[in-house]
Amino acid sequence: MSGQHAPLPPSSAYLWGPEGCPGAMQMQARQPPQEETEESREGDAAHDLLRDQLRKLPGRDVADNGVPIDDEMREAVALMVDWAFAGLAEWSAAKDQFIYENEVHAAAHNLVHPDNDGTPDYVAINWTRKIVRIGDFKYGHGFVDAYGNWQTVNYAAAVVETHQIPNWRDWTFELTICQPRNYHKDGPLRHWKLTGFELYGRVEALKRAAFAAIEPDAPLQTGDHCKHCLAQWDCPANQQRGGYALDIALSQGSSSMSPDALGLEGHLLDQAIRYLTDRKKALDVKIGELLDCGFRVPYHAVEFGKPRDMWDKAKVEQAVQVVEMYGVPVVKGVALPTPRDCMKKGVDAAVIKPYVTTNAPAKKIVQVADNHAAKVFGTRANPQRENT
């Protein structure tokens, strides 16, 4: 979720943790404030709904940030809520002593670092069976593995410390990722169970990584974690690795390579392509910001698509009733035909207009010949900016 975070939040443990980059958090802190993306706003809205459902509060149609709550979001949240309450029902039937909580602040100031705290989505503690159950809800599409997940390990440490669980190395920890919109073969609910003794070793590794991350000369380390780092475009280690990746991609191999050499080059090329793709995305974000401010960026220009009419998410149910009156078939669980498709099927444009919103034209960065960029922006239109 977005908002204020501790300097070393569990949600970024993949970045500053043992398998991440010690210098990442300091690099990110030097970046200008980032605008919220539509994806992050939707994620916050889904977490608002999850909080309400886990606390058995009345339903809502709009989240705290103004994002409409739609059926897809309700179904996604229901998956985690059903899993959480099913486990609690089992414990309750057995008359176990337990507590559960949602988005309650937990800190691992002693076990990890004084700047380490956060708010787990779901925590259940069974004092009878000595079980800590943690659930982390992900509304995004990118796969997140439950096994070896440093965020949930960090939450487990914070729960142990906050609730002062005695002899916790003798306990069992069940760490779950709920990701309804990622269609992985392992399913949307992915679990990782480990003993307290196993958890202890990982918490110690987190602690070492946390203290390394606050050192003034914390080193920069590239890897898959770079994909989500806000400083990726500005990182010298990332830039250097990009050069290595280009060298690999542009190298010319022998035509008589052994199976081992072929396998190794194929592996290196896969890594290089993935890395260069991630770096290009990060650079495009920064290039887009510069173009929006009027700077000329050689070989790049902004291209806008056409505005598109779409259903107002807050009024979809009313729109369904209207289009059905015109004989347009609507199947439950299937997306409503677009406004344009409905008009093609005879629905009066004036009738559906109150339920339609027009999105902003899609913007994308495109590659252009440099002489074309000069023609668009003017080679000498702003020599000061051109030379900066």
What can you see in these coordinates?
The protein is α+β, with helices and mostly antiparallel strands and 388 residues long. It has three domains: 10-213, Lambda Exonuclease, Chain A (Alpha-Beta Complex); 222-279; 308-359, no CATH class. Helix content is 42%, strand content 13%. α3 (38-54) packs parallel to α4 (71-93). The two termini are 36 Å apart.
Structural class of the secondary elements?
alpha+beta
Largest sheet: 5 strands, mixed
Per the CATH scheme, the topology name of the largest domain is: Lambda Exonuclease, Chain A
List the secondary-structure elements in sequence, H or E: HHHHEEEEEHEEHHHEEHHHEEHH
User: Can you tell me the CATH architecture of the largest domain?
Assistant: Alpha-Beta Complex
CATH class of the largest domain: Alpha Beta
What's the structural domain tally?
A: 3
> Helix amount, in percent?
40-55%
Name the poorly predicted regions: 372-388
Radius of gyration over all CA atoms, rounded: 25 Å
The number of strands is: 11
Number of helices: 13
Q: What fraction of residues sit in β-strands?
A: 5-15%
C-alpha termini separation = 36 Å
Judging from the principal axes of the Cα atoms, what is the shape?
Answer: globular
Q: Going across the major beta sheet, what is the strand order? A: 1-4-5-6-7
